[in-house]
Task: structure prediction
Amino acid sequence: MFCVPSDGFRSKNWDEFALPGAPALDFVFTVCDKAAGEMCPVWPGQPMTAHWGVPDPAAVEGSDEQKAKAFVDTAIILKRRIELMLALPLRSLAGMSLQREIDQIGKAGA
Result:
């Protein structure tokens, strides 16, 4: 089974990143399928943004095994997308080229 330690991490409201002293963001990825049509906030520093939607594993109904599989499947998809992004030649891609690449990653499957 795929396990990612979550100690010390928590879900955050986007407005925490607008507070003084908040970390600067280079990239922001939305992952909720429902967020695709929603208006996203204006992020401080205007980082690159892309929608990498995946089905919400918490919405899966069925056996405990089916629910667990939904979370594993989601983690695998996001892990693969992160790997694809990290494999990009970030130093040589700029502006619209980089935006196009991160948008395409969000359209890729696992």
